[in-house]
Amino acid sequence: MTNSRKVDWPEWLPIRSELADLTPYGAPQISGVTALNTNENPFAVPQEVVEQMLSRLPKVLENLNRYPDRDANLLREALANYINRSTKSDFSISNLWAANGSNEILQTLMLACGGRGALGFTPSYSVHPLIAKATGTNWSEGYRDNSFEIDMDKATAQIAELTPGLTFITTPNNPSGTATSFADLEKLALATKAVKGLLIVDEAYAEFSAEESAVKLISTYPNVVVVRTMSKAFAFAGARVGYAIGDESIVKALLVTRLPYHLSSATQALALVALENSSLLLAEVAALVSERERVARELSKLGFEVVPSSANFLLFRGFMGGSPEAWKSLVDSGILLRDVGLEGYLRVTIGLPIENEKFLAAIAALKP
Ligand SMILES: *Cc1c(COP(=O)(O)O)cnc(C)c1O
User: Fold this and answer.
1) pTM for the full model?
2) Phi-psi region of 196 (alpha: psi -120 to 50; beta: other; left: phi over 0)
3) In what order do the strands lie in the sheet with 345-349?
4) Ligand 1 centroid vs 129 CA: distance in angstroms?
5) 269, 292: one domain
6) Which of 279, 295, 318 delimits the end of a domain?
7) Over its length of 368 residues, how does the chain's per-residue pLDDT go in tens digits?
8) Closest C-alpha to ligand 1, atom 5
9) Is the CB–ligand 1 distance for residue 242 below 6 Å?
10) Atom of ligand 1 nearest to the CA of 240
11) Is the CB–ligand 1 distance for residue 176 below 6 Å?
């Protein structure tokens, strides 16, 4: 894989010593293949939504001489409304922050509150430790067992011992797809609160899951911050919109470390249209969930072992050969999956039915 090569920095480059061993994040972007490797939503933005976006653009374009609304007020209000509707909550704009993808939210959070270090339960989203390193945040690893579950006694003991400023939990987890129960999230909220730390719940795939959202913990545990994205469920990855829901004081802290005018007026306008059409865009989520169940059943029938998923992807094992060899053999058949670095596993994003069929046909050749 391309990302295993260490960078050979020129001697004159004053790169921070703690970053010298890092390589850029990146999944291969190969053209001409069926890409089921980055958990994108395969459905294009519906034509009627595209039309509405186009009708908003002239005003945005004429005003490009002006900076955007620095605090993205209309967008944050629309996001608060969306969260309130979908989780039966009562948040206001002062509980919401928006940025260029949830990755930017995570970075802004680490810049603001990472002073005492961060803890995450691996295997999980590899960008969390990457942003930690880039922001000079000390990173510690907690563990998941062979079924990707977190032992809550061990986790809460670790939180008490390390007293991290930030504890990350991804649910549904990437790359496993497994969800952490609301009861366990509450245990983590309590343990992090006891050490005056934040619990960052990365809910990038929340809309694909039946589990209750951690936003329900915020009123009791103001140290809980929920991070979400429009990249997956809203089929909006190219626009780059992520957001955080939390106590007012957390939003105030994020305002200190965000870059001025970070979210372009075009992004804000397009995201508003997407949110106005949320029921239309989210209708595709149900289709993806039922495809996920179908693909999981088919993989099991072929003899593969599939990790139960609450997201828009499946982690599975049981194919012939190692992950890199199976990955390569699938690329040769025109299917791009993700080798997430877990021995014996590959991850497949749920695509359109026709893409899933191609995948199933190709993987059948590698069945155990
Ligand atoms: C895809 C993903 C994100 C983020 O993406 P953005 O496109 O930056 O919003 C965040 N967290 C997890 C766990 C993801 O899988």
Assistant:
1) 0.96
2) left
3) 305-306, 313-317, 345-349
4) 13
5) no
6) 279
7) 344 446 788 999 999 888 888 888 877 788 889 999 999 999 999 999 999 999 999 999 999 999 999 999 999 999 999 999 999 999 999 999 999 999 999 999 999 999 999 999 999 999 999 999 999 999 999 999 999 999 999 999 999 999 999 999 999 999 999 999 999 999 999 999 999 999 999 999 999 999 999 999 999 999 999 999 999 999 999 999 999 999 999 999 999 999 999 999 999 999 999 999 999 999 899 999 999 999 999 999 999 999 999 999 999 999 988 999 999 999 999 999 999 999 999 999 999 999 999 999 999 999 98
8) 102
9) yes
10) 7
11) no
- In DSSP notation, 298-325 reads HHHHHT-EE---SSSEEEEE--SS-HHH
Q: Does ligand 1 come within 6 angstroms of the Cβ of 229?
A: yes
- Do 286 and 271 fall into the same domain? no
Cβ of 34 closer than 6 Å to ligand 1, yes or no, is no
Do 169 and 286 fall within a single domain? no
Domain containing residue 105: 66-279
Encoded tokens for 74 = 């209309």
Q: Tell me which residue of 203, 208, 204, 171 sits closest to 286, measured CA to CA.
A: 208
Q: CB of 237 closer than 6 A to ligand 1?
A: yes
